[in-house]
């Protein structure tokens, strides 16, 4: 099931004719339903971003609640590089609970020139790249990321696994506070236990070295 409301971050539509009329309606709805400002002075991104390392699957650890994701759990965002320089964006979630009906939204992102790939314009509606996606900070090894936009009404805390170590959680929340965000507004995102266990198993299989095999001529001692 594809749901265009699950668009991260917010996208305000604009265009001509009927598209412009629809855009005004969406804009009015957006103004009426947007959340409080959690950061009155959003800073510039702290680091450059290497797109080749940023792409892939991210799990949402926390967010400022917004109308696109209201009530959603098990939220993920997947980014895929394209040959034309754009980035495919695939957002997935479950409505109401981790076992709720699945939802998804597919869009595109375009890096802004001069931003060190840390600022992108996103579109979930045709050719209009209006939504802002700022990677405000990220781990050097790309295990976590903090995403915001200029208004300070939207914030996402992301990690490479659904249940990251406590140290990563503390870093995400602590760094968000250092960037000027009101962390009391952050809503924690829930993920199903099976997903957490599966992600943990993948991490172990890719990080632990295989045990050496005994040679055929070796003698096993008891």
Textual characterization of the structure:
This protein is an alpha+beta fold. Helix content is 22%, strand content 29%. The chain has an 8-stranded antiparallel beta barrel with strand order 1-2-3-4-5-6-7-8. It is globular, with a radius of gyration of 20 Å. The model is unreliable at 1-5, 9-32 and 202-222 (pLDDT under 50).
What does the secondary structure layout of this molecule look like, with pairings?
Layout: H1 17-33, H2 51-54, E1 56-64, E2 72-81, E3 87-95, E4 102-111, E5 119-123, E6 131-138, E7 144-148, E8 155-159, H3 166-178, E9 186-188, H4 193-207
Antiparallel strand pairs: 1-2, 1-8, 1-9, 2-3, 3-4, 4-5, 5-6, 6-7, 7-8
Distance between the termini: 57 Å
Structural class: alpha+beta
What is the number of helices?
4
Name the helicity range: 10-25%
Strand/helix succession: HHEEEEEEEEHEH
Tell me the number of strands. Answer: 9
- Compute the CA-based radius of gyration: 20 Å
Poorly predicted regions are 1-5, 9-32, 202-222
**Mean pLDDT over the full residue set:** 80
Strand line-up in the sheet with most strands:
1-2-3-4-5-6-7-8
β-strand percent reads 25-35%
Shape, principal axes of CA atoms? globular
Largest sheet: 8 strands, antiparallel, barrel
């Amino acid at each position: 099931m594809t749901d265009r409301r699950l668009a991260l971050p917010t996208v305000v539509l604009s265009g001509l004719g009927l598209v412009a009329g629809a855009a005004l309606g969406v804009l009015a709805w957006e103004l009426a339903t947007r959340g409080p400002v959690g950061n009155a002075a959003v800073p510039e991104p702290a680091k450059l971003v290497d797109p080749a390392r940023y792409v892939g699957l991210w799990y949402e650890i926390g967010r400022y609640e917004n109308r696109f994701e209201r009530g959603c759990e098990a939220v993920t965002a997947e980014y895929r590089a394209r040959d034309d320089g754009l980035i495919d964006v695939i957002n997935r979630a479950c409505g109401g609970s981790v076992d709720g009906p699945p939802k998804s939204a597919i869009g595109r992102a375009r890096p802004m020139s001069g931003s060190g790939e840390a600022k992108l314009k996103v579109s979930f509606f045709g050719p209009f790249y209006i939504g802002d996606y700022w990677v405000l900070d990220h781990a050097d090894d790309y295990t976590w990321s903090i995403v915001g936009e200029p208004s300070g009404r939207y914030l996402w805390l992301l990690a490479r696994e659904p249940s990251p170590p406590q140290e990563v959680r503390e870093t995400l929340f602590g760094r968000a506070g250092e960037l000027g965000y009101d962390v009391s507004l952050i809503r924690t995102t829930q993920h199903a236990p099976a997903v957490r266990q599966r992600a943990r198993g993948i991490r172990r299989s890719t990080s632990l070295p295989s045990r050496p095999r005994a040679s055929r001529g070796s003698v096993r001692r008891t």
